[in-house]
Amino acid sequence: MHLWTRVVRATAPAAVAALIAIGLPSGAAADQPFDQLVHEFFDIGRTSVPRAECGPGSAPETGLQGDVPAADRDSGRSAQGYHCNMSMAGGYTGRGAGITSTSFEHCVYVGSFFPGTLLGEHPGVQVLDVSDPANPRHTATLAEPAMLAGTWETLKVNTTRELLVGTGVPLAIGAGFLSVYDISDCAHPRLLNPGPGTNPVMPLPITTHEGGFSPDGRTYWASGIAPGLLSAIDLTDPANPRVIWQGLTGIEAHGFGVSPDGNRLYLSALGGFTVLDVSAVQRRDPNPQVPHLGRTFWTDGWATQHSVPVTYDGVPHLFTVDEGGSGGVKLIDVSDDTAPRIVNKIKLEINLGEHVDAQIGSAMGNSLFSYDPHYCTADRPADPTALACGWTSSGIRVFDVRDPAAIREIAYFNPPARTGRNLEIWNSPHALASIIGIPAMSAPAALRAMADGLFDPAQVLSARAGRVAFGDLSADWCMSPPEWRGNQLYVTCSDNGFMVLNLDESVYRAPADQVSTLGS
User: Of 102, 155, 119, which Cα lies nearest the Cα of 427?
Assistant: First the structure.
């Protein structure tokens, strides 16, 4: 038995007990059998998905799958980018893009990041008309307080009701500000709530870091990260958003996914997620209760980001993303609310334990993140054929997911690094965060690799080893969810801004019922 496994098995009961005991709301305490709470705790994914077979016109990666090697960063090769079965049709760099952006019809809403957004020519959320994909055009700027404060991971669209919502998050956690827009004319959003949530003297009683809609668009859920406060905001009347339920769900509440019927919310935590029964909120019961139905914790990855609900042959599943610790994307069977079960994992070669040392060696000097997914989008909710993910420093990755037991990569596009151009892209969180050069989000994976005897310090000591501050933007951060438009993807990356990418028809043909599926 590896040392890491022995250590984790010895400490897991206390760790899980602490996670359960701290901050859970009254009546939601853990009444599940203990073994169900930790049944995925020790499982580590040790294989990567098969590499994409790159066709004509590609400029493939030069090293491990997903890696931007130290030599490429230092020689300037990474400034040319890498692409495989995917090409760029057009884009709009502007001053860079915030953490997440969103889109509706032929329009894109580029997320803002505080305080950099205040320094640009158009402070706030940029609205782009992409009617001509080769030449996206700026048509409006949303400059309400929530948009100026930085939208972090809250800027989301509900297509059913043609609404755009974002909340103000200046630094990791925000409070009070939420703006709702009518986007029926997508290039010219119209503010619907000049009062509550927008007027500075009429804040909403929420904390926020992440946000998203129920499928019917009547509820916007806001999670406030630490402590794990979750708020349900009623948008039945978009002019008067109001909090109808609020609860402390644990020590941390990150992103989530909502089931198609709106009755289940899969809330991410430190490493894993909680299944919440939100049917009482969905029904608009008076004094609704939100019980915890199931919890799954793991050590293979951490800072769990969000979940994409899909079905395979009618059985509910999630694609759940870890934004740190080389956990990759997990495919999880949630047919039993009380006992979610991991059925597959999507990792790149650079995410494997034996490569964590090389991962740190190449990522050093490029700020906090190394190579982890952040947001993914399926191409339809039932029996998805493809999953597209923004993979920090590894670009946009596309996977064939038709067979959940045999997932493989089919294409990628890692945009050109904008090395040394920090002062041009004030709205990029990557540019602003690069005062730190150490990929700290890899620390848990590095500790596990050391304990398993897989970590070679010599691999860390690359030419970049001493770059612990003032990062050089040698690989972009692609954190926003790619959104499907037939064989095109609308994407934003922090440094390169908005891009329209073409997927080669030899590897992907859009299904007739394609629906870009994010889950919140």
Answer: 119
Other residues' Cβ atoms within 10 Å of the Cβ of residue 108: 27
Q: How does DSSP assign 213-245, residue by residue?
A: E-TTSSEEEEE-BSS-EEEEEE-SSTTS-EEEE
Residue 419 contacts residue 75 (beta carbons within 8 Å):
no
Stretch (H or E) spanning 330: strand 329-333
- Which parts of 61-106 are beta strand (E)? 82-84, 86-92, 102-104
The whole-angstrom separation of Cα 94 and Cα 201 is 32
Three-state DSSP state, 21: helix
Tell me, yes or no, if the pTM score tops 0.85.
Answer: yes
Structure tokens that stand for 200 in this block: 């500075």
Q: What is the DSSP letter of 68?
A: -
Distance CA(189)–CA(181), nearest Å, equals 6
Closest CA to 316 of 329, 333, 340: 333
| Exposure of 477 in the CB half-sphere (CA atoms within 13 A) | 30
Contact 99, 429 (CB under 8 A): yes
| End-to-end C-alpha distance for the chain, whole angstroms | 40
3-state helix, strand, coil in the chain (%, to 5): 15, 35, 50
Answer whether 218's CB lies under 8 Å from 230's CB.
no
| Contact (Cβ atoms closer than 8 angstroms) between residue 157 and residue 104 | yes
CB-count exposure of residue 289 (10 Å: 0-12, 13-18, 19+)? middle
Write phi, then psi, for 451 (nearest 5 degrees).
-65, -30
- 65 alpha carbon, distance to own chain's centre: 20
Q: What is the pLDDT along the chain (520 residues), one digit of tens a residue?
A: 444 344 334 434 444 444 334 334 433 333 455 445 555 677 899 999 999 999 999 999 999 999 999 999 999 999 999 999 999 999 999 999 999 999 999 999 999 999 999 998 899 999 999 999 999 999 999 999 999 999 999 999 999 999 999 999 999 999 999 999 999 999 999 999 999 999 999 999 999 999 999 999 999 999 988 889 999 999 999 999 999 999 999 888 999 999 999 999 999 999 999 999 999 999 999 999 999 999 999 999 999 999 999 999 999 999 999 999 999 999 999 999 999 999 999 999 999 999 999 999 999 999 999 999 999 999 999 999 999 999 999 999 999 999 999 999 999 999 999 999 999 999 999 999 999 999 999 999 999 999 999 999 999 988 898 899 888 999 999 999 999 999 999 999 999 999 999 999 999 999 999 999 999 9
Q: In whole angstroms, what is the distance from residue 289 CA to residue 47 CA?
A: 41
Question: How far from chain centre, in Å, is Cα 244?
Answer: 26
Residues 428 and 478: their CA atoms lie apart, in Å, by: 11
Q: Which amino acid is at 405?
A: A
Token digits for 180?
Answer: 């709702």
Q: Which amino acid is at 338?
A: T
360: amino acid identity, one letter: I
φ/ψ of residue 309, rounded to 5: -75, 130
